[in-house]
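Checklist before submission:
- one chain only
- standard amino acids only
- sequence pasted in full

Submission:
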Amino acid sequence: MTFVLIARVPSDGVASFQAYEDAVLPLLSEFGGLLERRLRNSDGTIEVHIVSFDSDQNFQRFRSDPRRASFAHLLEASAASIERFAMTDVA
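Returned file contents:
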């Protein structure tokens, strides 16, 4: 499973968003996840991730992990708008 995530972050929410990401991205590997690419514009208001998981079950486990949920207040404080797209490789 591969996802592309696009986060649009108001300038006053950038620090909170980056704190959230710093807290939750290290959890990916525990759930068969891999951050393949992380891109950010110069002011931190747009961030793009390419993330893969070895199974839908592990993706769901990551999404419901209580440690991840404990940092949700940072994501909310950032007021980020996040789009997530399930993608497939093209031959």
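Reviewer check: The mean pLDDT is 96.
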